[in-house]
Amino acid sequence: MKKLLSVLSLSLIFSCHNQAQVNPEQQAVIDAEPVEVPLEDGKARAYFASGCFWCVEAVYESVKGVEESISGYSGGFTENPTYEASNTGRTGHAEAVEIIYDPEVISFSELVDVYFGSQNPTQVNGQGPDHGSQYRSIIFYQNDEQKKIIEDKKAALAKELDATIAAEVYPFQKFWVGEDYHQNYERLHPNQGYIRNVSIPRLNKFKAKFPELLKEEEKH
Questions:
Q1: Which domain holds residue 36?
Q2: From the candidates 29, 46, 52, 58, which is the catalytic residue?
Q3: In a domain, 99, yes or no
Q4: Residue 187 covered by a domain
Q5: Active site residue 52
Q6: In the sheet that 44-50 helps form, which strands lie side by side, from edge to edge?
Q7: Domain count of the chain?
Q8: Is 141 helix (H, G, I), strand (E, B) or coil?
Q9: What is the C-alpha separation between 113 and 219, in angstroms, rounded?
Q10: Could you tell me if 90 and 14 are in contact, meaning their C-beta atoms sit under 8 angstroms apart?
Q11: Which SS3 state, helix, strand or coil, does residue 89 take?
């Protein structure tokens, strides 16, 4: 499914809002009030976009306190986005993940550390070989506290690297669950070419960097 050399094509029409003029529909998403997702059975939810959702899903599922990571779409202005539609770059959506986690075990702040620590934070409109607005990096906040955590960590990282951090900061609005065949893709297709050459190396790099955040079974 994924290509080692993604084509920019129509995705450049949209681009990301810190690179080009944003259309009014996308600006309305950026300016909206955040939607806060309530706890359910003591579990919280967080939302991140960081390139291919196969990769991001696998990273977060290795983290202690994370119950589930679901691949889907967020950050756009169209209803019911699909993989094919989002890949045109014209829906405004990015491939994203919904993280269901236990806030008694891992905090939102630590999940943001996982986010920045598992990607190239300076790559604009993509990660690794995947390029286009549908692969751009976005962190979604649900309240002012989360927004401050994100912005403080982003500023600290920019200072540390002496570079511009590409991640956009959006108010969370809605997460659209992706197609069934995308879920748990890395786990179910370990020998697929993209998984072998991109997803697994990205996951292993994260594990080596943050062993203290891993589930016990992921440390071996």
A1: 11-204
A2: 52
A3: yes
A4: yes
A5: yes
A6: 168-171, 137-141, 44-50, 94-101, 66-74, 176-177
A7: 1
A8: strand
A9: 18
A10: yes
A11: coil
